[in-house]
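pasting for the record
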Amino acid sequence: MSYTTKETSRNPYYKARIHAAEKDTAYESRLSAGAVVGISSTRLYQIERGLQEPHRDELIVMADAYDAPELLEHYCECVCPVGERCRQIREKK
């Protein structure tokens, strides 16, 4: 049984991988998911724990592999400085 923290269980990248694992067992572990996505299991761990944000190219591959376009929206809304600035402008109106 794997150990999951409360923070990890709320992480959108973790949730997307677990949802993808319901359809494809290749996403059940970070090791096998990392191999499919093309990043190390350590890097995937850092992303899923919120220690690091994915690079844009990693994000695109993860969103496609997991069939999770919501990851792109999350990144644009919460991580991308351009998306953050656009949100601030919308809130001022």
